[in-house]
Amino acid sequence: MFVSYGFIAFLCILFVLYYLLPGKCQWILLLCANFLFYFSAGRWYPLFILVTSLTVYWTGRMLGRLDGQWDAYLGDIRSGRTEKPSREQKKALKATVNRRKKGWMLLCLFLNLGILAVLKYTNFVVDNINTVRSSLHIQGEALPYLQLVVPLGISFYTFQAVSYLLDVYWNKIEPQRNVLKFTLYVSFFPQLIQGPISRYQDMAPSLYASHAFDWKQVRFGLERILWGYFKKLVIADRISVAVSMLMSDPEYYTGVYVLIGMLFYAAQLYADFTGGIDITIGIAQVFGVHLQENFIRPFFSKNIIEYWRRWHISMGTWFRDYVFYPCSISKPMKAVTSWTKKHFGMGGARRVAIYIATFLTWFATGIWHGADWHFIVWGIANGVIIMITGELEPLYAKFHDHFPRLVNTWAYRAFQIIRTFLLLCCLRLLDTYASVRLAARQFLHMFTEFWKTPVNFQELTDLGLTGADYLVLLFGVLLLFSVSMYGRDGSVREKISRKPYFVRYAVFVLLFFAVLLLGSYGVGFDAQQFIYNQF
Description:
Layout: H1 5-20, H2 26-41, H3 45-79, H4 87-135, H5 154-169, H6 179-187, H7 200-208, H8 215-248, H9 256-286, H10 304-310, H11 313-328, H12 331-369, H13 373-402, H14 404-407, H15 410-427, H16 429-432, H17 436-448, H18 457-461, H19 467-486, H20 492-497, H21 501-518
Helix pairs in contact: 1-2, 2-6, 3-4, 3-5, 3-6, 4-5, 8-9, 8-19, 8-21, 9-17, 11-12, 12-13
């Protein structure tokens, strides 16, 4: 959707109107644009996002009202207007307020996560029930699949609304009093494609503020958008042809082609996802809205834990703050920890809490990515490797202490980066192939049948790419690498802005023509859908 002519025209018109309107009306225009954008994607989609916005808004106000009543009661006690209760009475009253707050929060949570679960996972459950019935030879007709439509970006806007609800419940933020402003936060249109999953306290100040035209910020936003289009159209959409070919015929493309496929897919996924996020952040910046960074050079990570701190940051921190932490300190977990401590000591108790919370978090991460077992196994595999990495940290520390000269060399750091990159590529086989069994088979064949199919120019061009395509891809990947290296110690756009006028605009013009001339537009400019649209 970001790469259509219609969207670009929509964006240009919105930009002109936005800066012509008085500042106090700008957020209203954005709200109208959100629903126009969402309606164009599907006529019933706005209904779903309205249900989420209104229920979470109303529940947030209810939670705030209960907190306000409790604070007023305490104020009356301090001022002497109300008789001071006993400690037991005060504790009982506080428990009642907390119980009511928890009840409203859970009701709203179950409603909105329930909508997400029904729309996204009903057919997955039906499929598994039918599989079990078939394997057990149970007589009767199979359960029918439902024709359900999954609204665009439902996972993103639901998670964004849930983060607000829980932050209000935990008294981290004050509830928003204006229902339209809250709906704007939930439905901000650039984020609906693939995130990032913003927090209310980070996004609200710039989202609701008045913005005068600032050429530097607009220019930075346009440069970010253009860089995103370069990644998407020049790299991701071009290499996607070869990736589709490699994954569509696993019987032929085995052995070394599994390795080639996972390397190609890594380039496609990175260029597609980060390109989309660049466009999102750039659009927001053009309108003066600040969104958090979602990637910080993830392929320079030296282990998987560091990688997940750099890749899809908003998703990782969401699962950490709203799944891992609440799970690890919940009452059931405390009971498990207490039992484990009694029977296996403090070390075992500490580990079991972390292991269970990590497993549940990564199970949820996997199923969030897709309603299929290969996504779930992908999530669990990441969690298991993270737990193993954590357990091996003392050994790594000893190794680093014994060989300080080695670990401080560029060669050793390069080894760590390449090792982590290849590990993540292998895990992504579960993402690219349609089943866990097929992914496992292809992984084994990568070693046992490495030279089964020869690698030559003819075979590579049979993947749907010409020699010129491979040269463009090489140029694009090298440019991505160079920009990442250049941006290690500061913003690339800030650095370029300090260059002479001619250099600044030469870079912009060259990038524009690179997208225009080298972009893979497809027949009739039917650009590939963003990979993360499915979420």
